[in-house]
Design goal:
Number of strands: 14
Strand content: 15-25%
Helix content: 10-25%
Order of helices and strands: HEEHEHEHEEEEHEEEEEE
Number of helices: 5
Length: 311
Amino acid sequence: MRPVLAAAGAVGGLGLGAAAAAHVWARHVEIHRFTLREVELRILPPGTRTVRVLHLSDIHLLPDQQRKLDFLEHLSLLRPHLVIDTGDNIASAASIPVLAEALEPLLRRPGAFVRGSNDMFEPMPKNPARYLLPDSRPDGMTDPKEPTLPVGELSERLSEHGWKDLTNTRASIELGGLEVRLVGVDDPHLELDEMPAPLDPSTPPPVHGNVLRLGVAHAPYRRVLDAFAADGAELVLAGHTHGGQLRLPGIGALVTNCDLPRRQARGLSTWQDVPLNVSAGLGASPYSNYRLFTPPEATLLTLRAPKSPPV
């Protein structure tokens, strides 16, 4: 019996050791492994030049996170044609000017943004086990209340050089012969999303006839994805999930913190045949600042026209 107990103790010790190693890795290593994920989609009209779209999400910035700030500044070297920010940019009011300084070169490029709950409400300690519930939001979270963060100041800094605020509205950006028609909603996780009215049928077509329809939301709830698909979106960008934040080999994301299927918690997939890119994001709440098998990321989407058939 003693050898059996000893073996069990050894196995238990290995399990505890593995758990401790995973904690150290998630909390002190992987959370800082900033990554650029690159994907290619052939969804542009024939004859349209290539467009590079930089997708940022879930930065959750604190002013002293220098490695994250360095990565954000480095992204300007990509020289994207369009930048889309899907929210949860800050973790404190003091982060707003620091964020704006780090993003300044990108803010001067064509872009648009929506906001997430952490752009409106300062993060608070919470029981991590809540994320395993069907609805992780605390009771009353979706009731109307005044934001505890300066939402207006954040929006002003993000839009001061021309980025479009897509809060429950539509906008259009011209990219050298391609009109990008954007539709966005306020944070679905707080049930603030209101799909804007359909585009007026009398809207004149673009001069060059080339259009890309893009849907943008923070949290990829099914109702919002359905609305974008029905609206004619040809690409949808979202964040919020942190890629599951904790992923296990062979299992993937344990949760999505919304009603999106777990298999779509990170990366490129489709929703009703519409390409959907869910960013795993660049940060996490300061009260759960860890990641396991889902490093922080930004995404560069290279959009191209279809290949020409062989002659």
